[in-house]
Design brief:
single chain; alpha/beta; Rossmann fold; 7-stranded parallel β-sheet; 6-stranded parallel β-sheet; 18 helices; elongated
Length: 381
């Protein structure tokens, strides 16, 4: 029976890998799955031999701090490749690590499928050529990803983005307003400071400062702070207590806040794309170590950090990066939007195009079928 070795290095990759492999198991329960991942993969029945999520980081220089541990994990995965002899390796995100593992798969003559492959469409297109040279099957989630990999001769299938099937809210905005105890006259703005403490500490105080200034200008505003998974509400409350605004902390309601809000102020990352799928305008905020920012901006020449802007091909939502991230600039943009609904409507029209570019849905099932096909099992229908 089919043996699949999985390699997922961060919480999001673990989640996406688990969703796909759960579909595989649903079709063929006897498939053996083992390798590297975390909680979501364990819960769906994978044998997890390495959990690297404790050393996951943001940025190039930051990752160097845990380099020795990364190489230990890589050696272990190569050992598993030799000893367990999988029929197929499922590489999910975690690009620098999984590129090296893809090379090892090529050398061992083992097929590999890469879901959320290296972002060669953002910078360093040579990475796409390397993956093509390893014979890695690419499961592309973005349209520009498919194009870049196809250009260098990679075997690529466009499966679309799985968030299309995950991001939804059945309740209408009016129902959500009641749930959040908003009066008829109140206008909601969501604050999304990120899912890591480092992000929160650098972004949330300035977001709250902006909220305080906006409240002085528009007394009808209400602010909800979204608590990401794994972030305790008491921790976020400590920031609110030190601010001059009475913002409410809400957990496990990301999508509801997005749908009910006029717009959100968010850390760069998956939240920006989720908000785009729900057709909610956003102000994207980003602060990284200056070394990482320098590499991204001036060496790799990344034009945008926000996925909605990258997918659309030009800036449709503002990005406040590094020194540009300050309360005064958030306030300036927010007041323009609050005073002119037409600006928000124009952004919403462009966000609809972003959603359309992400495919028609069904990415998880398409990727599961791709794994079964590459593993030699027939499409189960």
């Amino acid at each position: 029976m089919l043996k699949i070795m999985v390699s997922a290095g961060e919480i999001s990759g673990d989640m996406h890998a688990a969703a796909v492999l759960k579909k595989v198991k649903g079709k063929y329960p006897e498939v053996e799955i083992f390798g590297m991942g975390s909680t979501a993969l364990k819960e769906m029945g994978a044998e997890i031999l390495i959990d690297p999520t404790e050393i996951s980081t943001i940025g190039y220089i930051e990752a160097l701090k845990n380099l020795r541990q990364h190489f230990k994990h890589l050696s272990k995965m190569k050992e598993l490749l030799r000893e367990r002899k999988p029929d197929l390796v499922f590489l999910v995100d975690y690009s620098a690590f999984n590129m090296k593992l893809a090379k090892a798969c090529s050398q061992a003559g083992v097929k590999a499928v890469n879901y959320f492959p290296p972002s060669a469409w953002v910078y360093n297109k040579k990475r796409a050529a390397k993956m093509a040279s390893y014979g890695t099957k690419i499961a592309a989630v973005f349209p520009m990803e498919r194009e870049v990999y196809a250009e260098v001769g990679a075997d690529v299938s466009f499966v679309g983005h799985p968030l299309l099937d995950m991001v939804s809210v059945e309740a209408e905005p009016e129902e959500l307003r009641k749930e959040f105890k908003l009066s008829d006259s109140e206008r909601l703005i969501g604050l999304f400071p990120g899912s890591r403490r480092g992000e929160i500490e650098s972004l949330l105080p300035e977001m709250l400062k902006a909220a305080s200034e906006l409240k002085k200008e528009k007394d009808d505003l209400k602010f909800l702070v979204s608590a990401a998974d794994g972030i305790k509400e008491e921790y976020l409350q400590s920031f609110v207590d030190q601010s001059q605004i009475k913002a409410q902390i809400i957990g496990e309601s990301n999508y509801k806040i997005m749908k009910a809000a006029e717009f959100i102020i968010t850390a760069s990352g998956t939240t920006a794309l989720e908000s785009a799928i729900l057709n909610t305008p956003q102000i994207i905020c980003y602060q990284a170590a200056w070394t990482s920012y320098f590499l991204a901006k001036y060496v790799f020449k990344i034009e945008f950090v926000g996925l909605p802007n990258i997918i659309y091909g030009s800036q449709i939502v503002p990005e406040l990066l590094q020194n540009d991230f300050e309360a005064a600039k958030i306030v300036e943009i927010a007041l323009e939007w609050l005073n002119d609904q037409n600006q928000l409507n124009k952004i919403k029209n462009k966000l609809q195009i972003v959603r359309e570019k992400l495919g028609g849905g069904g990415a998880v099932n398409k990727t599961a079928e791709l794994l079964l096909k590459e593993g030699g099992l027939k499409n189960s229908g």
